[in-house]
Specification:
The complex is a heterodimer of chains A (235) and B (288). Chain A contains ten helices and ten strands. Chain A has 235 residues and is of the alpha/beta class. Classes of the chains: A alpha/beta (235), B mainly alpha (288). At the A-B interface, α2 and α3 of A face α6 and α7 of B.
């Protein structure tokens, strides 16, 4: 029996002023599913995440979450419904300590398995640095804080926007090693990733974006390298 | 002894200036909004307190029961209804709109209360003083204002760094978009910040009305003192703002000691010197 659809976009478009970044995206995530979004720089991956989470406005019916139209809601309203984004470039709050960054992530008090203690359990290195300014951490540790901060809201769906950007390969391994523990509780995830093989390895299904349109979609295990290359570069 | 006296009185006057400045500093810190009408809101609060004492017979100290909630409500409504619409990437719209508010407030008060000087009568406390040493007396009222200024700044400091609301203020100030991802409605947060700023304004207005005489046109002058205290102390640093207020008060009193006509000039000169030597103020907040 197929899992119920958690998130669905229908003919989703997004613009920055006169520039149209997304053209009629039909995208879906089922409950418990890990979906990868791949594509070249400027293909619209981050824009798609921003449009879904409500940082970019869209018509109400173009995004459905738990079968409810949310396209016209603001980001702070959508996060209250149990969806969150780990933003590209980490974007911690520099005025807040490591622990305060986590605590503010949990300020909506949604019930669930994630707490400050659970995040320290997942990323033990953060516990030693809990009282430091968040800007004093290394890039990888900052990424752990950004992920922990998002988990603190106990979402049903978590969007990861390029969590490996600018990090050393060994650190990226550490971060991806945490993924199974994040999704084992039934959380769904969308992973935006430039590294195609890693994206396909960790996901159930994948979408490839090219110039604001979906150029390929399918189960991650069935996508051939040739098909992905064609969808990625358009050649 | 005259000089020591001038310095001590200047320090106490600095407490009042810090009260003028704290709300300004808070608003700028949270939402990068420069409220040109800040001084006029202080005067509005003084007039509200005056109306309350005259109509209820309450001691001016006790008018805070009415003035603080009224100003807080006004602040929230003003922010949600008007000022939020002016906030964006440009710095000019909020300046122009608050400038307009300043004009409206001054003329509205003039229409209702006329240009007459007003003062609230605080009773015997106004003339009470403590003799610290031969020739050095400290007025109870200026001392009370100073102690309250320290109390207000301590409370704001605690609120900013020790409460969930303060955390939300800092997060929203750091990054409005990402703060939304934490479920924070920045329009509401800004409304609360303005409400809190106008609570401080209410306290400043009540003491302004007891310490000095006031009329509808004195707001911009209070704004200048507030600005100067904030800039001298360093933007975003509340204790720096207190030091800035004290430095301003001491400079003014020393200037007045040299020549009574130099009081205001000495304060402005100190401000200019600080601005020239340390453009970011004496205690700038370390920011990333």
């Amino acid at each position: 029996m197929p899992e119920p659809v958690l998130l669905q976009t229908h003919d989703l478009v997004a613009r920055y002023g006169d520039f149209q970044a997304l053209f009629g995206i039909d995208f879906s995530v089922s409950a418990g599913e890990v979906v990868a979004v791949i594509g070249a720089n400027g293909a619209g991956k981050s824009t798609l995440m921003k449009a879904i989470i409500g940082l970019l406005p869209s018509p109400a019916g173009s995004v459905l979450y738990h079968a409810k139209p949310i396209g016209d809601l603001a980001a702070h309203e959508i996060t209250h419904l149990g969806m969150t984004l780990v933003p590209e470039g980490r974007q911690l709050f520099p005025s807040l300590s490591v622990e305060e960054n986590l605590v503010i992530g949990g300020q909506m008090n949604r019930p669930g398995p994630w707490s400050v203690a659970a995040v320290y359990d997942l990323f033990p290195v953060l516990k030693q640095r809990r009282h430091q300014p968040s800007t004093s951490l290394s890039g990888g540790q900052q990424q752990m804080v950004a992920i922990g901060r998002a988990l603190m809201s106990n979402p049903d769906l978590i969007l990861f926007d390029e969590v490996s950007l600018g990090l050393a390969p060994i650190i990226i391994n550490d971060i991806y090693a945490a993924l199974p523990r994040i999704i084992e509780q039934g959380m769904s995830a969308v992973i935006v990733e430039q590294d195609i093989s890693r994206a396909l390895a960790v996901s159930d299904r994948a979408y490839c974006l090219q110039e604001g349109r979906i150029s390929l979609e399918g189960p991650s295990g069935c996508l051939t390298r040739a098909a992905v290359n064609h969808a990625y570069f358009g050649v | 002894m005259d000089w020591l006296n001038a310095i001590v009185q200047g320090i106490l006057l600095g407490g009042l200036y810090a009260l003028f400045a704290a709300g300004l500093s808070l608003i700028f810190g949270v939402m990068r909004l420069v409220n040109v009408a800040h001084g006029d809101f202080i005067v509005l609060a003084a007039f509200l307190a005056l109306v309350v004492t005259q109509s209820t017979g309450l001691h001016p100290f006790m008018t805070f029961i009415f003035v603080i909630p009224l100003m807080a409500g006004l602040g929230y409504a003003l922010q949600r209804g008007l000022l939020n619409q002016t906030l964006g990437h440009a710095i000019l719209p909020p300046l122009l709109v608050t400038f307009g508010l300043s004009v409206i407030l001054q003329n509205g008060l003039l229409e209702i209360f006329s240009a007459d000087n007003q003062k609230m009568d605080a009773g015997p406390i106004e003339t009470m003083s403590l003799t610290v040493a031969e020739g050095l007396n400290i007025g109870v009222m200026p001392l009370a204002v100073f102690v309250i200024a320290i109390g207000v700044i301590t409370s704001l400091q605690w609120m900013f760094y020790g409460t969930a609301l303060g955390r939300a203020f800092r997060a929203t100030s750091d990054n409005q978009q990402i703060a939304q991802l934490m479920g924070l409605n920045n329009r509401h947060i800004f409304g609360l910040a303005m409400a809190l700023a106008l609570v401080v304004v209410a306290i400043a207005g009540i003491f302004l009305g007891m310490r000095t005489s006031f009329d509808p046109s004195v707001g911009p002058g209070r704004l200048i003192f507030g600005f100067e205290a904030v800039i001298i102390g360093g933007l975003g640093n509340l204790w720096g703002t207190l030091i800035g207020g004290i430095l301003l008060g001491v400079s003014q009193n020393i200037g007045a000691q040299i020549n009574p006509g130099w009081q205001l000039l000495a304060g402005h000169l100190t401000f200019l010197v600080v601005l020239a030597v340390r453009p970011r103020g004496l205690f700038p907040k370390v920011d990333g």
